[in-house]
Structures are given as C-alpha cells and as structure tokens.
Design a protein that fits this description.
This protein has eight helices and 13 strands. The chain is an alpha+beta fold. The chain has a single domain, classed as Endonuclease/exonuclease/phosphatase (Deoxyribonuclease I, Chain A, 4-Layer Sandwich), CATH 3.60.10.10. Helix 2 packs parallel to helix 5.
Length: 292
Amino acid sequence: MSLDRELDLVVETDREVAGSALLGWRSVDDRIRDVSPAATSVNAISVATYNVHRCIGLDRIRDPARIASVIDELNVDVIGLQEVDARGRRIQNMLARRLGAPAERRAANAGDQFDYLAHKVGGHAVRGPVLRGPKGDMTTALITRHKIGAVRTLDLSLSAHEPRGAIDADIEIGNRSVRVIVAHLGLRVREREAQIALLCRALQAVPEQPLIVMGDFNEWHLHRSTLTPLDERLGHATPVPSFPARFPFLSLDRIWASREALVTHLHVHRSPLARRASDHLPVQATIRLPHQ
C-alpha cells in the first residue's frame, strides 16, 4: 500500500469509526547462529509478516540495511515480506552520494532489495512474482532458516487494479512439510473479495498439510471484513494493530494457521527501529504444529 493512499485510508477509517535462493546463514552483524534442525523445535516455528514499504522509513529515507536490522531483531524461523522493491536505484544513489549519504546505504540501494535482504538476512529465500505497478517493480519475498521444497506463485492481479501476487511454498521442518503462503492484497473491497476467493481456491489444490497464511491483507474496515472466507476455513486470525507504524490502530497484517495448528504469542514488534524503518510494523507469532 502506498504511503499517500494509506494516509487517505486512515482518514477514511477515522470517518467510519466516527460514523529459490540458498545462502549461508548470517545475521546483520555477521554473528553465527545455530540453524541446524536441533536449533528449533519441529513442533513449533516462529513466523513474521512485514510490509517493508520499499524500505522507505518514516523519515523518507530508503534504507534496506535498516530493514535487515529489524528482521534481525525479530529472530524468526520464517518471514514473509511485502512491497520489496525489485529495481536498482542507481540514479538515486548518484544524488545520495552528492548529498553525502553513508556508503553502506548507497551500496544497499544499488541492486534490487530482494537480493540484498536475502543475502544480508541469510538462509533460504524465495522471490515472489515481480509486479509492475505505478511506482515501479515490486515483489513479495519469503526468507527462512529451513529448507524449501516445492514453490508455486499465485497471480492475484485483477484488471483495472494494481498487480498483486503471492508466494506458495513448502518448507521442510524436520521430517514434515509445512505449506506457507505470503500474500499482499489490494486496496478495494471488491478486489480483495476476488483475491480471497482465488486464495481459497488455491488452498484446495494441494494435498492437506500444515498451513500458514500471512501477509498484508489491507483489510481496514471495522465491521465488514473481506477475510471471512479465510477465517471460516482456517479459524479467526486475531487482529493486532500494525499500521501506521507511528500510531498503529489498523490491523492490515495478519497470520493464520490451519485448524490443526495453533497460533500463539501473536504480537506486533514495536522496537524504536521498527517504528522508523517502514510505515508498517512487523507482526510475529509462534505456530505450534500438530504432533505427528
């Protein structure tokens, strides 16, 4: 969601209230972490969803390294990202150099953000479909400590609307496969209704297995939710306010798990850095998987 449009939605809501890449695991400061199968329980995984807003913070500075630092704070097994800029920023870097921007920030902006974040965060990474919108090419991303099996992409684009898509991947955790979907839905009610229908259809196309669905679903209405079909299928996704980052009161970012699993420790990550790095705050949870 663009910042200008999101601010418009905040105003509208106020009125309503009133009336596969494989990389060595490295943290941001290059500390070595234990990501062997023994490091995390095969019966529980930590997940997060984060709209990084093209790595543009509330200070309007484009800083992928700052986003990588927030991801490092989260310290989760699986993270889904939305609004990852898929273009290099060479012209902006030329201007940034003249304005004296730090060399690290210029280096982070030289290539596309997926490549940078996948390398900086480390682990196994999947790029979603690259979507060409009014503000350039953007994509979703999935980064995980666990091995990735089959990967599918879902086209959620509708005519006359900004392109949208989702990642649909199988993650190998211990000796089981967990399906993870990372999505970013549209701004309009009818648009989201159609995209949710496409998602629900996709859920039926793959054999039953533990399932996690997360992303920016842009559902900001208080009393009429387009997410009901997902709630009915997976159980109610408890809303937690994640937008806008400075004073969050809209629950745009959601996490579901299949009914045999259990979402616990659901919360918004509110560190000082996260409050500056993007216009959304990350939402994270622990998913307790059914015993085999």
